[in-house]
Amino acid sequence: MRKLVLGAMCWSLWMNALAQAYKGPIIDMHIHAYNQEAGASMFGIDYRNPLTDDEFKGVRGPEQQKKETLKILEQNNVVKAMISDGKLWRTEDPNRVIISGRNVSADSLRKRHQQGKLDAIGEIVSFYGGMTADDPLLAPYFDLAEELNIPIGYHMLPGGPPGGIYYMGLKDVRVANANPLQIEEVLIRHPQMKIYLAHGGWPYLEDMKALMYAHPHLYVELGAISWILPRAEFHNYLKGLTDAGFGKRIMFGTDQMVWPSTIEKAIEGVNRAEFLTMEQKEDIFYNNAANFLGLNEEEITKHKNSYKH
């Protein structure tokens, strides 16, 4: 009898979790597109996360990455995706792909924007080269983003997978360069800039609260922390930001690279956050990014009517 009662309780909890899952449109603010040159070192890698023991099967090449990622986005109601080097996928899915450009000069990005081949800048990954956001070499990118009124994403921690310094050749990554307070002078110089920090600024919760309090134009996207961290740690960080009143500036993101199943893992991570109301989930999954990106009312209405939760 006791087993039956426990079984019924577990079933009830599971069904309640399903009932609370957000099923509306989603915007993913952090995905990567690779070609054979850019992604050669990652293709074919199956990854076991040492923090959670989760295993993710890697795609074998750029065509498989594109095909499987776009398929999972469609299956999970992801209507827009901010994709670094998204020009590689724009032809196949023009309505979904937001092109974010990086790894070239600011002048080259300007030309791409003039040609209609650039929607955003980023993510800026100078962290991997040992640079911080206040380095003068990065100033032209922040200047350009504010001038063109396009989003710019900036990366700090996580710097690759756990321990990536030692086995992925990330020799210039330093935790000492990861504190989000480094972005403050950039924010002050560019009060109209549409900027977001990747991975939520983790693990610097208190500093992120202070930054978001002082600078209302700063947003965050959740990125890899939504699937690479133990669920309790991710939820603790997300709850800290939402409890502090910043739920309207948190955007969903996955940092999907060569493991497409991380997208569904990340969606589940937000949906399983019992401390979030359905309205807060809708904000994180869609509304906040729609506002940040400046989507028009017609497009928003179309998205919401197509995927009612």
TrEMBL record:
Keyword ATP-binding on entry: no
Q: Which InterPro entries does the record associate with it?
A: ACMSD, Amidohydro-rel, Metal_Hydrolase
Q: Which residues form the Amidohydrolase-related domain?
A: 89-295
Molecular function per GO: carboxy-lyase activity; hydrolase activity
Keywords noted in UniProt? Lyase, Signal
The signal peptide, as residue positions, is 1-19
- Look up keyword Transport and say if it applies: no
Name this polypeptide is given: Amidohydrolase-related domain-containing protein
Q: Which organism is it from?
A: Saonia flava
The uppermost taxa in this organism's lineage are: Bacteria, Pseudomonadati, Bacteroidota, Flavobacteriia, Flavobacteriales
